[in-house]
Input
Amino acid sequence: MSSYRPILERVYDFKPVELPPLRQELERELRRCQDCGVPFCHASGCPLLNAVPEINAAALSGRLRTALGVLLATSPFPEFTARVCPALCEGSCVQGLHTAPVPCRQIEYAVIEGGFAAGLVHAHIPAQRTGLRAAVVGSGPAGLAAAWRLNRAGAAVTVYEKNARPGGFLRYGIPDFKLEKSVIDRRVRLLQEEGIVFECGVEAGADISSRLLGERHDVLILAVGTGKKRDLSVPGRDAAGIHFAVDYLTAQNKLNGGEIAGLPADCDAAGKRVLVIGGGDTGSDCVGTAWRQGALSVCQTEIMPKPPEGRAPGNPWPQWPRILRTSSSHEEGGERRWNIGTLSFATAPDEAGRRERVSAANCAEVSWESGSPVPVPGTEFSLPADLVLLAMGFTGAEDGALTQASGCAPDRSGRLPRACALPGGPKVYACGDAALGPSLVVRAIDDGLRTAERVLSEANAG
Ligand SMILES: Cc1cc2nc3c(=O)[nH]c(=O)nc-3n(C[C@H](O)[C@H](O)[C@H](O)COP(=O)(O)OP(=O)(O)OC[C@H]3O[C@@H](n4cnc5c(N)ncnc54)[C@H](O)[C@@H]3O)c2cc1C
Output
């Protein structure tokens, strides 16, 4: 049901690509919701346990206030998930057994944006404060959700964020054409009205010491995300023109947000042949960003095999369908290749003759043997590239002054332990990607809420 702005219009700007759903289409789709006896969308799809059939029934009968109330009962920030969630609920919709699932994400969009437009979304200031002083480190979706829940329960909450503005990957990773940043600002204003204090541009553990954090707060929640990017150690990696995808996306987001006046030359794809290594969401966001910057060509490679068009036998409904996904960015053009390994980068001296610049990636097809990719002899080829973006995921949370002081260092899988403590000081909890590993906005929100619940129940017990 999604409709998008025409490609030839949208690739020249960073405005949202998806159009709001039309009322008539929405009604048609809402009628397809069967109010199933066992609503898998709610029970096994949505991590937040959104009561999708109840939301849909209220929306269909025009009871916006009720639909909004049911949605907000489980989901504090539906305006984020309505834009970027892969919609795990839709993967388990009963209609999806035979035809297209009910488009729950667009319905969520209509309900929350309808609610904002009708003036139904307000700040809720807690009637009384309990005296609990909580610090949340990191203002991505997990940190915002934890802060929201603790504040609603009457805690005094301060969010520390090392970036200049709050939002984590919502602001600095995901491009504006998927999530316009005014949506984050609107929510942060509400959270501030509710009493949450944001201290941005403050790196916890560095700009404010762990000792001072311990003195100021009774409890600390680390929602610091996964700062460590997966690298590619092959010959030529150090050449100019090879960047981590997330640094590239951050530069464009900062430019759009007015935080910087221009793109660093190496983060500008204009007139360049762009190679994106990594076939996930981050890679797809690089494809869309590169087109908007005026790339000459874009190629995206993935080391894993091409997913099937439909569900494989071992991936039955109502599991999340592991199938080929084509994003709005892919529809804008470019080449996609699977089962491709990068062996090395070819380089040439830059114009000033000072530094080696990337000129191509030397690749080969791979076969999968005992779970590892093995280059297939004789399949080697070269992909010309002036800008290479490494979008191969993240290896875990960073181990900084704060995690070291609290004994909360990441384990071998890169995840922070769920709970530890500053020496002689407050308890420290971890949530979101930092504790789960790289995940999704909806899971980060859910984990922030659950962690806040744990903090509250332990604070009450203690
Ligand atoms: C490019 C990209 C595209 C994505 N697209 C999607 C998508 O379409 N849909 C989806 O569901 N998910 C998407 N994801 C994943 C999603 O964004 C993450 O799962 C989610 O943001 C994790 O939330 P978080 O709060 O745990 O961490 P983050 O969002 O990473 O936030 C962590 C925050 O902690 C701050 N921080 C770290 N250390 C400190 C410190 N010492 N002091 C102060 N602040 C600190 C960081 O600056 C950051 O702001 C995408 C991710 C990326 C990178």
Observations:
- Residues 84-85, 137-143, 160-163, 168-170, 173-174, 178, 203-205, 223-225, 246, 249, 281-282, 285, 400, 402, 432-434, 439-442, 444 surround flavin-adenine dinucleotide (CB under 6 Å).
- The chain has three domains: 7-117, 133-227+395-461, 231-392.
